[in-house]
Design a protein that fits this description.
By secondary structure, the protein is α/β, with parallel strands linked by helices. Helices cover 41% and strands 17% of the residues. The protein folds into 2 domains: 111 residues, Tetrapyrrole methylase, N-terminal domain (Cobalt-precorrin-4 Transmethylase, domain 1, 3-Layer(aba) Sandwich), CATH 3.40.1010.10; 115 residues, Methyltransferase, Cobalt-precorrin-4 Transmethylase, Domain 2, CATH 3.30.950.10.
């Protein structure tokens, strides 16, 4: 049986911070930040704003993000093994969910350092609570891949799930992601959560095709969570939405794909004939 004891006297605190409204900080999280010898942050600029809001202006702070080298990790571990208390915070929300905090927590445990959570806000559970979707069981799959092949496999995996699926997406990719999902299954119900807990908070329900069209007409701004209803027991027939298909063809052509290759890629995903998709691709290339 693995040991749960540690010889080190240091402590790594994984501190959840607000996802938008700074008033959501917990008393325990504030106390942890005040007591820490060092605060380690994924983005020091965002964390300094939170610390200023809390009146914690003299606390040492260092960055630790996806591009930090091994020397930075080693420096933090040395301080922990010396007996210091280090508080780690992500950009926003609960650490280690789509951020590099997991690497720090894993390395700390491997070095014999105690790791303790300070729970609090999470964009995943916040979005689920207001979405109206089944949250008894759900799957969180993070950010979609960026490369075309893995993206298609990922979206097929998403739409094959019988449970509610939660995704994150960046504002400059949300429209493209919804278009590609809608090509696979236009009538699947989804909800988009935007800028949660902030002034312009918004929840937008609709089918994937409706949401794809919405963001074609409205500039995406802010942070996004996508919630997709689980698949029915019996798979439904694909629904062809030519507006969405034309948009996806435009994306593929803009990336450098030939008219023929773009038509082949999209025709495999829809009930529309390859000849008809090819004509749509030709029209898209002429615009």
């Amino acid at each position: 049986m693995p040991s749960t004891t540690t010889d080190a006297s240091g402590l790594l605190l994984m501190v959840a911070t607000p996802i938008g409204n700074l008033g959501d900080i917990s008393l325990r999280a504030q106390e942890a930040l005040e007591a820490a010898d060092l605060i380690v942050a994924e983005d020091t600029r965002r964390t300094r704003k939170l610390l200023s809001y809390l009146g914690i202006d003299d606390k040492p702070i260092e960055s630790f993000h996806a591009h930090s080298n091994d020397y930075k990790l080693d420096d933090i571990l040395i301080r922990l093994q010396r007996g210091e208390t280090v508080a780690y915070v992500s950009d926003a929300g609960t650490p280690t969910v789509s951020d590099p905090g997991a690497e720090l927590a894993k390395a700390s445990r491997a070095a014999g350092v105690s790791v303790s959570p300070i729970p609090g806000p999470s964009a995943i559970t916040a979005a689920l609570s207001a979405s109206g979707m089944n949250a008894d069981r759900f799957i969180f799959l993070g950010y979609p891949p960026r490369k075309a092949g893995p993206r298609l496999d990922f979206f097929r995996l998403v739409l094959a799930q019988s449970l509610t699926v939660v995704l994150y997406e960046a504002p400059h990719r949300i429209a493209k992601t919804l278009r590609e999902l809608a090509v696979l299954e236009a009538d699947r119900h989804a909800v988009i959560g935007r800028e949660m807990t902030k002034k312009f908070e918004q929840f937008i329900p609709g089918t994937l095709a409706e949401l794809a069209r919405y963001f074609a007409d409205n500039e995406p701004r802010g942070e996004f969570v996508i919630l997709i209803e689980g698949a029915a027991t019996q798979p439904s027939e694909p629904v062809a939405d030519e507006t969405v298909i034309a948009s996806v063809l435009g994306d593929l052509l803009a990336s450098g794909m030939s008219v023929g290759d773009a038509a082949d890629a999209v025709a495999k995903l829809t009930p529309i004939s390859r000849r008809r998709v090819y004509r749509m691709a030709v029209r898209a290339a002429q615009r």
